[in-house]
Amino acid sequence: MRLVTVTPFGGMSQEGGIISLLAIYLGQIGFDVTQFSCNGPFSTCDRDASRTWQRRIHSCTDCMAEQESLAGWSGQSRDVLSAYLSPQDIVATRRWMMSRQDSQILGARYEDFDVRELTPGTFSKRFGFTLPDEKNKQHIEFLRKIALSSVRAGIASRAYLLKRRPDVAFVAGAEDYISKAFEVAAAKTSVDLVRFRWESGSRYVKIFRAGNSNVYPCELLLDGVATLGPRVEAWPAEIVVMVEEILDFLGLSQFQLQLPIAQ
Questions:
Q1: Are strands 32-37 and 77-80 parallel, antiparallel or unpaired?
Q2: Is the pLDDT assigned to residue 130 strictly greater than 60?
Q3: Percent of the chain with pLDDT over 90
Q4: The model scores a pTM over 0.90
């Protein structure tokens, strides 16, 4: 089976640690596991919030290095987002956005991708609410930027999914526009999607399948994951049990390893 993971913010994501841990396990039982990485083709993203929304020269390279480190640690091959965004896509989406008046941006749609569906999470993170004030130039400028970027993220995600045809996708967050665009593309291409979402209040990662309201609360945090090695047979028994519980919850229990430590 083929698995793709999407962890666009590298080491800043608690979800990324759990996804990478599962990737190790699944890779060792024969899954073809690939990380679909954001390699910096956008002018802004949710990670900029940690720098007061100021994009710096090393912002993307730092994030790319963290994603690469996660992939290397978990034994994933890598594919980059920009490879699935053609020059024609860049030109067409730019013309599409330039043709929209300020009042038309929020309700705009490009092919399968609806700006109103893709952007609220990122806009809310920047301003604290989901709907922009059309008279506020700062709101409109930011909305234009993330609307264009989110549509491009969707186009690239869809092209990747149609070419690689993974059986299942693990996605971190799904509220930022990059993850949300991938989620929408997965739905349009009938890829089985599993979301991993950090809950800061309860301090656990919610794991749930698209279209299913049942939730697995995973309390293992990124710091704990980072101390583990890449060999499943060397993991503590409680970690193996937790991973197998997650696989059982996701309907992937038939692929579990037969390890003495897990029995």
A1: parallel
A2: yes
A3: 69
A4: yes
Q: Which helix (H) or strand (E) holds 172?
A: strand 168-172
177-214: b or e for each residue (b if 16 or more CB lie within 10 Å)?
bbbbbbbbbbebbebbbbbbbbeeeeebbebbbeeeee
Domain limits, the chain: 2-84+157-262
Question: For the chain, percent helix, then strand, then coil, each to nearest 5?
Answer: 50, 15, 30
Nearest to 217 by CA among 245, 238, 180, 240: 245
Q: Does domain 2-84+157-262 have CATH number 3.40.50.2300?
A: no
Report helix, strand or coil for 77.
strand
> Strand, helix or coil at 249?
helix
Distance, CA of 10 to CA of 64 (rounded, Å): 7
Q: 181-199: per-residue pLDDT in tens?
A: 999 999 999 999 999 998 8
* Alpha carbon distance 65, 38 (integer Å): 11
Give the 3-state secondary structure of residue 27: helix
Angle at CA of residue 192, ends 180 and 244, nearest 5°? 110
